Input
Amino acid sequence: MLIAVDAMGGEHAPREVVKGAIEAVKEFPTDIALVGNKPVLEMLLRRSKVRSNISIVQASQVITDEEEPIQAVQSKQDSSIVVGVNMVRDGIADGFASAGSTGAIVVAAFLSLEIVKGIERIACCVVFEPTQPSPTLLIDIGVNPNCRPIFLVQFAQLANILAERVFSIKSPRVGLLNNGAEEIKGNKLARETHQLLKKTDLNFIGNVEGFDVMKGKADIIVMDGFSGNILIKTIEGYSEVIQNLLELQEASELDRQLSGAALAQYVQMVSAIKKLDYKEVGGAYLLGVNGNVVITHGRSRAKTIKNAIHLAYLAAKQGVVEAIQNGQYATEQQPA
Output
């Protein structure tokens, strides 16, 4: 299995991307193709003893976050993002992971891989573990700020396949993010989506509120991309604030000050916060295209890159795209 990795995407590329790739091949049974400036990547790889599982694919251009995604993808066909996505399209790579421009990755995937037949919109699905043993999947976290009810129903169906295939969650509980638990709550989009979800064969448990996200009430939480992007960035900001506060105290001081139940609660809190950290998560799946694509944080360092590669590897190994291609999806003509 081969995972293509955008070696030039992100604030800390290419050095941290190369480090992450090296860590990934040590831990996971996969080969990696680093896509980017070949001379630079060769120089960075020379310092590592791990080489047989890592190859380099030349890409002479880089798309930055400041560039308009559509124009950048169309004008920079030899960029690390476009070349990496095209490797998936051409069957050379089984998956692609990038910390580069999210907009450019989405556009490149949309143009090169195309949307799976029957899917109205592609969506980003982030996977994290707040406090429960199994992961929680949030979809959509930013691709579709303006949605129709049928989009959200299909997002839930896509995430359901991912949850079952990759994370072995049987009959995942699906919740709809809303401002109240009652069926009549929410705006027109939420109310209509609720009614459609009730008619599917999904394990729909109803509305979930913002405070339910961290409680493991649902395995999948579906929302429009506008709300999802705000939610995920709020979680990320909360995680960073708490971690910064914790770092103000030396571990030795805490050991002296805390004992018994207080120390146990502190350890549990640190563990929960780490699970909210994007460095632990790895990235988000781009679902609905004909290829395995993982988008990770622009500030990703080696550990996050390694985890993103692992997510792409798991999706390819478990046949997520094939399962999505064979799925049956709700339509507006034929309600779910």
Remarks:
- The chain has a mean pLDDT of 88.
- The longest strand covers residues 31-36.
- The longest helix spans residues 225-247.
